[in-house]
Amino acid sequence: MLLEIITPDKKLFEGEVSSVIVPGKNGKFQMLNRHAPVISALKKGKIKIKTSQGVQQFDVNGGVVEMQKNKIIVLAE
After folding, report:
1. Which of 1, 34, 49, 56 is most buried, taking the most CB atoms under 10 A from its CB?
2. Distance, C-alpha 23 to centroid of its chain
């Protein structure tokens, strides 16, 4: 699935991932391939992504995540 992590300053990440864990307002949750469509607010925490090259983490101070049709967009602060 395709992931984009965008901040007001720049695009932090764009590429294929196998899983994404985000700090949702009501707790962490994971999105995998063919996940149901979702929109959620994010709280301060870490976004953890798994790619073919390994695991990466990004710190965020909040934001919004949307997943639809195997594409995830994170608008992060």
Report:
1. 49
2. 9
Residue-wise pLDDT for 29-59, tens only, equals 999 999 999 999 999 999 999 999 999 999 9
Q: Among 3.90.550.10, 3.10.50.40, 1.10.8.100, 2.60.15.10, what is the CATH number of 2-76?
A: 2.60.15.10
Domain ranges of the chain: 2-76
Separation of first and last alpha carbons in the chain: 23
Residue in the structure block whose two tokens are 């608008």: 75
Rounded to whole angstroms, the Cα distance separating 49 from 47 reads 7
Phi, then psi, of 44 in degrees rounded to 5: -60, 135
